[in-house]
Amino acid sequence: MRVRGSGSKNEKIELQMTPMIDIVFQLLVFFIMTFKIILPEGDFNIKMPLAAPSQGAPDPNQLPPMKIRLKANSSGELASIQMNDRKMDSFSSLHNHLISVVGDERGPGSIAQEAEVELDCDYNLRYEYVIAAVSAVSGYLSDDGHIVKLIERIKFAPQRK
Questions:
Q1: Is the residue at 136 inside a domain?
Q2: pLDDT tens digits for range 36-48
Q3: Residue 40: inside a domain, yes or no?
Q4: Cβ contacts of residue 148 below 8 Å, gap of 6+?
Q5: Number of other CB atoms surrounding residue 90 within 10 Å
Q6: Looking at residue 129, what is its pLDDT?
Q7: 127 domain-assigned
Q8: Among candidates 52, 51, 87, 55, which has minimal Cα distance to 68?
Q9: Domain count of the fold of the chain
Q10: 53 CB contacts (<8 Å, ≥6 apart)?
């Protein structure tokens, strides 16, 4: 590399690599220390149904799944919500009922950890109602801004013909 105006043509300018390497390591340490790992939004533990449901003996230690039935009318709008054959008026009433069933206890061995919800939706039900049901079941945002998880284990029943 030659600098314009210098007297000698054979004189090369030497790049100082040590300060550049120092800056790279300082940037690397900065980004590692400020990196915050957050849970991705909408990450649900959902089990989709298999092609043919297997008939096995249920685990006696596991709570029976709570079955939520979403019925649609002919245009795909939500007609009714039922939880274990109990009619619900709206997704908020479903949500409040699940809070009363699950309770405030969290952590390993709690009801919330063991509970499982099975969503049984009509084939022609609009997708927005399915997502509203998943949102009502999975949790809510508390007053202080923290995410409170209700039921993490959500599965879908096989399609009705």
A1: yes
A2: 877 666 666 676 6
A3: no
A4: 139, 140, 141, 142
A5: 12
A6: 92
A7: yes
A8: 87
A9: 1
A10: 158
Structure token pair of residue 118: 């099975």
Do 131 and 125 meet the contact criterion of CB atoms below 8 Å apart? Answer: no
Token pair listed for 48: 């989709």
Residue 58 lies in a domain: no
Q: Determine the residue type at 105.
A: E
> Are the CB atoms for 155 and 117 separated by under 8 Å?
yes
Write down the pLDDT at residue 54: 57
Q: Range of 122's domain?
A: 45-51+64-156
pLDDT exceeds cutoff 70 at 149: yes
Residue range 7-37, pLDDT digits in tens: 566 788 888 899 999 999 999 999 999 988 7
User: How many helices (H) and strands (E) would you count in the chain?
Assistant: 4, 8
Q: What separation in angstroms does the CA of 131 have from each of 46, 83, 92, 126, 128?
A: 12, 16, 13, 9, 5
Phi and psi at 119, nearest 5°, equal -95, 125
| Cα 118 to Cα 111: distance, rounded to the nearest angstrom | 16
State the amino acid at position 46 in one-letter form. I
Question: What predicted TM-score, i.e. pTM, was given to this entire model?
Answer: 0.58
